[in-house]
Each structure stands twice: as structure tokens, then as C-alpha cells.
Specification:
The complex is a heterodimer of chains A (159) and B (287). Chain A has 159 residues and is an alpha+beta fold. Chain A is 35% helix and 16% strand. Chain A has a five-stranded mixed β-sheet with strand order 2-1-5-3-4, with helices on both faces. In chain A, α2 crosses α5. Chain A starts with a strand and ends with a helix. With 287 residues, chain B is α+β, with helices and mostly antiparallel strands. Chain B has twelve helices and 14 strands. In chain B, α11 runs antiparallel to α12. Chain B starts with 6 loop residues before the first strand and ends in a 5-residue tail after the last helix. Classes of the chains: A alpha+beta (159), B alpha+beta (287). The interface between A and B is medium-sized, with 31 and 30 residues.
């Protein structure tokens, strides 16, 4: 099939590779950019595990084709936190036991990176509405909601 | 769960998109947010040979006033419809409905043009368009036409759009003074398509209903505006009895499909319940 040269800007770095137009962004991130923190669950937009940011907005990587993302800024879980440090939300998830197997966690972190920037002081109902797009099969959602609330409070205090 | 191969074009002007569409019809498929098309392609329910990506046509992403109408560009994303002060003020039904679509990340990407063209029987925006009497402005390479929402949705996922035509913008009539709106839906999981949804606007004058618009989605292949019922329900006091009578009439009169998963009697029951909730809210009787 016809492969094309595709250049993606991910976490501030350019990745150039050859792929068909049908290559999903989720597969390109993992296979062509070597960024395996983005997880693939359902591949039809329901589970939220593959959520990344495109120009700051949360996007299902499995519902976009890599070729569509040329010229856009993609951020993945690898851009969150730093060497040996956690982001406020990652730290809060750690403290409140907001994950068990961790498969859904990158998608949740990326979703709420965007959400908390747009809604710094959300109600629990708003958090749950936004979280409804990320399925977790281990913990239930109580501790994830607690982590998001804790992270929101800490981010508000520090700014 | 991987899509079949396709060719890809990414026009930067509406004219280019229309030219591609004419050139490749009927194999060309427009993609905007892709929140319905991409899952269908991943599951190979859709296998377009030629994808034409509209996401660079940012001139089609807008909300603006045009006299008595609110004009919305086809590439306007659901998130913006829900959050836009202009939409909230002039077309609150549209803002409320947009807020209930899918999930946060889906709303960040999905577009009004895509939702209307996709025409899922249970989708929010087709229901709002039909309920409010929206006008869809369609374009092809060699012309343009306007189609009323009532004439646009032909059947499930089937519209009046020709193979070489695209939606350029949509106009919704502005809300009148004293008018309130409510959108209610029922689904089994938050963010799923509705089994049934109800949309209503109620315009009251001193407690008397001057104007009612009422629509039901999900019950059958296309969203339905219950115009005759709504007209007959005016001139009365907007109280709980009125709500109950209109809701019962809606449940009786609505066209319903019947299948094993969602039987007809259940669709009628949901219609009555959701119409009552929407009317109760729009008439200011309930939260």
C-alpha cells in the first residue's frame, strides 16, 4: 500500500516516519515514535485510554489518523511531570491510591491536564462528567475523583 | 479494529474541498471531527476510498448573529456550542444539548456539520435542528441551496445531502423573550447515544403558554418535531397538569421503532417521561 512520509510534533520533538494514511495516531505514537505510554484499549473511542492532547485539547488518538496531525502539537503522558518528579495530578493519584493496574491512568492524566486548566475549580459533578470518558476496570472511580479534587486544590493554591 | 486503506486529501479552502468532493463522488467522504466516522472505519463498517479532511477549513468554525438567526459554521465543535455565550443566550437548547454529547474528549473534536451529516437517529444536534426549525445551508461546486431541517433527515444515517454536497453552515432561530429551553435524554451509560431524548422550548406570558416547540429523538429513524401537538398545547396555564397531559399525548403520538433491545412500548414510556421532564424544566416547574 502507499506509504507516505509523515512528520509529527510530539512533546516538542519532531518524528518523521513512513506510514499509510490509515495509520491511527495511537499506533503511530507507540510504533513510530516509540512513545508507549499512550495505551490502546477499545479502538473506537469509548475507553479513553489513548487520550492525548492536540494543541492543548483532549483527543482520542484512536479516532484520528496520524496524517491528520501534521502541523499540530501533540502532547502525550511522557511530557507530564519530569525526571523523578510527578505532576500534581500524578502525585495525587499516587497518594489517594487512584490506580491499580495503571492501564487507564495515562488517558485520565491527559484528560485532566486539559480539564483542570479550563476548569480550575470544578464541582464533583463536573469531574465525574469529564471522567465518564475514561474507563477504569480496577479501582472504581472514588479514588480517582479524590485525586482530581486534591490535585485541583493544590494547583489552585500554588498559582 | 484497523481501518481499510484509503487515500487522503487535506484541502485548505472550501472551494478545494468541494472540487475534491465532486471529483471523487460518490467515493469521497468528508471527515471533520471523525468521532463517528473513525470508529465506523476502525470497525470497517465504513470503507471510504477517499477521505477529504475538513479540519483546516477554520473559516467554517464560528458562531455569529445574523438578524433573527444564530449562524453556526459546520466545523464548530460541540465544546464551543456548549460554552459559547452567544449560543447560551440565543439558542440555549443547542448549548444544553451539545453539553450532553459523548464525553469531554469527544466534544472537543466532534463538529455540528459532522453530527448533522452523520444523522444518527438518537443524536442530539439533529433533534435540536428539527425541533427549532433550523435551516441547513448546503454547497456544491456549482451552487448552493438551503434545506429545512424537517426535510433534511430522510432515514437513519440518510440525509438530503447529495454525494458532492457539504453542509457549510446552519441557522437556528434565536430564542424569543420569555422563552426557556430544556433537553433531557436517557441512556444506559453516561455518554452513550440516547435511547430516547426530548427537546422543548416553552414561551410563557404571565403563566400562560404562548408557544411550545417539542421534539423527540431516538424513538424512530429520524428525529420528530411534534408540531401539531405543540400548537394545540398553547393558551393554557403551564402547570403540572399541563405537563402531564402534553407528555402523555407525546408518548401516544410519537412514531416509534420496535426491536428486541428497545421495544416500542419502552420507547413510548421513555418519551412520556423525558417530555415531562423537559417541559417541567422549561416551564420553570422543576429543576
Amino acid at each position: 500500500m502507499d506509504q507516505q512520509s509523515i512528520t509529527l510534533t510530539v512533546n516538542g520533538r519532531n518524528f518523521e516516519f513512513a506510514a499509510e494514511p490509515r495509520k491511527l495516531l495511537s499506533d503511530a505514537l507507540r510504533e513510530d515514535c516509540g512513545l508507549t505510554g499512550t495505551h490502546i484499549g477499545c479502538e473506537h473511542g469509548v475507553c479513553g485510554a489513548c487520550t492525548v492532547l492536540v494543541d492543548g485539547q483532549p483527543v482520542r488518538a484512536c479516532l484520528t489518523f496520524a496524517i491528520q496531525m501534521e502541523g499540530h502539537e501533540i502532547s502525550t503522558i511522557e511530557s507530564v511531570g519530569g525526571h523523578g518528579t510527578l505532576s500534581p495530578l500524578q502525585q495525587a493519584l499516587h497518594e489517594t491510591h487512584g490506580l491499580q493496574c495503571g492501564f487507564c491512568t495515562p488517558g485520565i492524566v491527559m484528560t485532566f491536564e486539559a480539564f483542570l486548566r479550563a476548569n480550575p475549580d470544578p464541582t464533583e459533578e463536573e469531574i465525574r462528567d469529564a471522567l465518564s470518558g475514561n474507563l477504569c476496570r480496577c479501582t472504581g472511580y472514588q479514588n480517582i475523583v479524590a485525586a482530581i479534587r486534591l490535585a485541583a486544590a493544590r494547583i489552585r493554591e500554588s498559582t | 479494529m484497523k481501518p481499510a486503506s484509503f487515500q487522503y486529501l487535506r484541502p485548505v479552502a472550501v472551494e478545494d474541498a468541494l472540487r475534491h468532493l465532486a471529483q471523487f463522488a460518490p467515493e469521497g467522504k468528508l471527515v471533520a471531527g471523525g468521532q463517528s466516522l473513525a470508529p465506523m472505519m476502525n470497525m470497517r463498517l465504513a470503507r471510504p476510498a477517499q477521505l477529504i479532511d475538513l479540519n483546516d477549513l477554520t473559516e467554517l468554525a464560528y458562531v455569529k448573529e445574523a438578524g433573527q438567526w444564530l449562524r453556526v459554521g459546520a466545523l464548530t465543535r460541540h465544546q464551543r456550542l456548549a460554552a459559547s455565550p452567544l449560543v447560551q443566550r440565543h439558542c440555549p437548547l443547542l448549548a444544553q444539548a451539545a453539553q450532553t454529547i459523548g464525553h469531554y474528549a469527544i466534544r472537543a473534536r466532534g463538529t455540528i456539520g459532522g453530527s448533522l451529516a452523520h444523522a444518527d437517529p438518537a443524536a442530539q444536534l439533529p433533534l435540536v435542528a428539527v425541533t427549532l426549525g433550523a435551516r441547513l445551508h448546503l454547497r456544491r461546486q456549482d451552487g448552493a441551496r438551503v434545506v429545512d431541517a424537517a426535510d433534511f433527515f430522510l432515514s437513519a444515517m440518510t440525509t438530503a445531502l447529495a454525494a458532492d454536497e457539504m453542509i457549510e453552515w446552519v441557522e437556528f432561530p434565536k430564542a424569543q423573550p420569555g422563552e426557556a429551553a430544556a433537553f433531557r435524554l436517557f441512556n444506559r451509560r453516561h455518554g452513550d447515544y440516547a435511547l430516547v431524548a426530548a427537546a422543548a422550548t416553552v414561551e410563557c406570558d404571565g403563566g400562560t403558554v404562548r408557544r411550545l416547540r417539542l421534539g423527540v429523538g431516538g424513538a424512530a429513524a429520524v428525529p420528530q418535531a411534534l408540531c401539531a401537538l405543540a400548537e394545540g398545547a398553547t393558551g393554557r396555564t403551564a402547570d403540572e397538569r399541563w405537563v402531564a397531559e402534553v407528555a402523555q399525548a407525546a408518548a401516544r403520538q410519537v412514531n416509534v421503532d420496535d426491536d428486541a433491545r428497545v421495544p416500542a412500548h419502552y420507547r413510548r414510556e421513555l418519551t412520556g417521561l423525558l417530555v415531562a421532564r423537559a417541559l417541567g424544566r422549561a416551564a420553570g416547574l422543576r429543576g
